[in-house]
Amino acid sequence: xxxxxxxxxxxGLSALLFAQAxxxxxxxxxxxxxxxxxxxxxxxxLRAPEATAVxxxxxxxxxxxxxxxxxxxTWSFTTAALRPAIYDYTFSIDGFRxxxxxxxxxxxxDRTTSTMFEVKGDQPAPYxxxxxxxxAVRIEYYVSKKFEAPRMIWVYTPPxxxxxxxxxxALYLLHGAGDTEAGWVTIGHANLIMDNLIxxxxxxxxxxxxxxxxxxxSATLGPAAPAPVAExxxxxxxxxxxxxxPFAEKTYRIxxxxxxxxxxxxxxxxxxxxQIGLNHPxxxxxxxxxxxxxxxxxxxxxxxxxxxxxxxxxxxxxYIYIGKLDTLFASNQSxxxxxxxxxxxxxxxxxxxxxxxRNWRDYFADFAPRLFR
Amino acid sequence: xxxxxxxxxxxGLSALLFAQAxxxxxxxxxxxxxxxxxxxxxxxxLRAPEATAVxxxxxxxxxxxxxxxxxxxTWSFTTAALRPAIYDYTFSIDGFRxxxxxxxxxxxxDRTTSTMFEVKGDQPAPYxxxxxxxxAVRIEYYVSKKFEAPRMIWVYTPPxxxxxxxxxxALYLLHGAGDTEAGWVTIGHANLIMDNLIxxxxxxxxxxxxxxxxxxxSATLGPAAPAPVAExxxxxxxxxxxxxxPFAEKTYRIxxxxxxxxxxxxxxxxxxxxQIGLNHPxxxxxxxxxxxxxxxxxxxxxxxxxxxxxxxxxxxxxYIYIGKLDTLFASNQSxxxxxxxxxxxxxxxxxxxxxxxRNWRDYFADFAPRLFR
Lengths: 373, 373
Prior knowledge:
CATH superfamily of the largest domain in chain A: Alpha/Beta hydrolase fold, catalytic domain
Number of helices of chain A: 10
Largest interface: A-B, 102 and 101 residues
Strand content of chain A: 25-35%
Radius of gyration of chain A: 23 Å
CATH class of the largest domain in chain A: Alpha Beta
CATH topology of the largest domain in chain A: Rossmann fold
Number of domains of chain A: 2
Distance between the termini of chain A: 75 Å
Number of strands of chain A: 18
Oligomer: homodimer
Structural class of chain A: alpha/beta
Shape of chain A: globular
Order of helices and strands of chain A: HEEEEEEEEEEEEEHHEHEHEHHHEHEH
Strand order of the largest sheet of chain A: 11-12-14-13-15-16-17-18
Helix content of chain A: 25-40%
C-alpha cells in the first residue's frame, strides 16, 4: 500500500519535475517552430488552425513571406538555401506579430523580441563556441549622471584576466537602436568571437566594454523611455566619456592611453561611434563604424575634416563597413567620398549584404584583429 | 540646394535612426500590451481584429483569463488588484501561445519565453535596483565532463570583490525546470536582492554561483537537449560537485570550507538542492529548498535520515519553503513530517502562495541573510 502510494507519487512528481509551473495548466512545451534542412533551406511550421493569414519575417529575406496552410491547420514556409549564419524571425498571425515562444535563442531588444536560428556550415563559424579558453562577460551597474538613471554595462574580459596583473587595451562597442547593452553578446557572440580570435593568435587580448546607448534605465531594469531623436548625438557621448569610461577604468585594469582605446558600433551605434570617435581624437585612436547611420557629416565632423593632418596623425585605424544592399549604402558612400575629398585616411569596406546582424558579426571578426597593433 | 538636400537627408536618416532594420518594413514598435492602473489592477490590451478567442495567462491568476473584444478589434482584460510583485504573462490568440513581443522584460527559459510586468508598491521592493553599491554578475563558460558540453555559469560577486583580497563564502543557487542559469538574475533579481541586503547590513557579502541544471549545452548556446526525467538526480549532482565547484573555486576567491558553502534552489532546483545537500553533508552546511519537488524521500535521503545526530551536527541551516496553494504542498508537508519523525532539525516555512516566481524572490530575500552566521 505504502509502496503503491510511493510509486504513484513518483510518477506524478516526475511529470511535474519538468513543468515550470505545476498547476498553471499551460501544457507541454513545444519544440521551436523551424527545421534546418540538410540543403540549408529552413522550414518554418506553425500550428494556427483558426488563422486566415500567417507570414514569417526575418533577416533571411527582405520582405515578409506568406506561409501556406495545410488541412491539419499547420502553416509552413521553406526559405531558399541560406549561407551559414545566425538569422532571426518572427511570425505575423492575422496581423499579430509574434516571436517563436518555444525557441530559447532570443534576439531580445529594448522594445521588441524576435527569435533566432543558426544554419551551420561545414566548418565552425567565428562566432561558434569552441574548445578554447573562454573569457568572462560581466554585467555591471553604474549610475549615469547624464541619464539620471542606473544603467548596465556588459564587459568582456579575456581568458587569463583574473590571474594576470597587467593592463589591457579596451574596445568600447556600441549596439544598434533596437538592441541593448547585452546585444553584442547575446546576439552578436562578440565574446565567443574574441575567444576564438585570441586562441588563434589573431587578436590581442582586450577588454570589450558594451554600454547601453539609449535614454532611461537599461531595458532589463524597466521599459525603455521614449527616445528623443536628438539624443544619440547629445547625451550618450557625454555619458560615455564622463561616466562609462571612468567607471570601466576604475573597475578594470584598462590602459588609459588613447593608443589603447578603440570605439566601434553598429547602425545607431555606428553613428555614435563616428560622433564620439571623430570628435574625441585624443581619446580614441581606433574607430570602426559598422553600417553606420550618417547624418550631416560636413557639420557633425567639421573639426576632423578641417584638420586632416592632425586627424590622420592621431587615428591609427578608421574603418567603415557597409552592405551594398543596405538602405544606408548611399549615405555611407557619400561619406566615404567626403572623407576622401578631405584626405582623411580610412578604409571603406563594402559587403554584399544589407542591414542585418550576420554582417555585424562578420565585421567584428574582421575588425577586432586589426586593433592595438 | 545643397542645404535642402542636407535637411532632407537629416529628416530621412533621423527616421531611420531608431529603426533596428531599415528596409525591413516591420513598422514602428508598439508599447507593451499592459497598463498597471493606480489601484494595482492591470489591464492587458491587444489588437487582433481577426481573432475569435484570446486569453491571457500568467502567475497573476491560476487559470487562463478570457479577453473581451471591442468593436475596434482590440481585446482587453483587467486583473484583480495585485500585490506588489513581478508577474509574468503570455497570450493565446486562437490557440497560438504568444508572449508580448513589445515588452523587453523577458522571462526567458530554456524552452519557452514569457514577458513580465511589475506592480510597484509604496516602498521599493527587495528586488528593485536601489542607489547602493552594486556587485557584478559574470557569465562564465566551463566544459562539463559529465554533460560532455560547454556550459555557462552566472556568478554574482558582491560590491568590493574586485578590490578586496579575502575569500568569500559561496552560495550555489539552482534554477527551476523551465529556467536557465540566467534565471535567478534576469527573473529573480538575486543580484539586486543581494546588493540591497548587503547595503543594509542584513546579509554577509557572498559569491552566488548559478549553474545550469539541465542536460546539454546551456540554452543560449543552442536549443536544449531533451531531458531524461532521471537526469536531475544523477548527472547534475556529479557535475556540480566535480566540475562546477572546482571551476568556481579556481576562478574566484571562494572559501573552500563547508561552513562557508551553501546550496539552495527552486522547484526542480529545490529537488537537486535536497539531493545534493543532504547527500553531501561534508560539502554543504546550509540548505535552502524553495518549493522543492520531493520524490521518494525515504529512499533519496536514507543516509541523512538514518543519522539524525550526524546530520544535525553538520547542517547549520536547513530551510524548506512552500506555498500552501502549491500543487507540491502535500508532498512537502509529508517531507516535513518525515524529517520531524527522524528528528532532522529543519525549518518549514509556509507561504500563502503557489508555484510562482514572486515566492522565490521572497524566499531568497528571507534565506540569504541567514547564511554563514
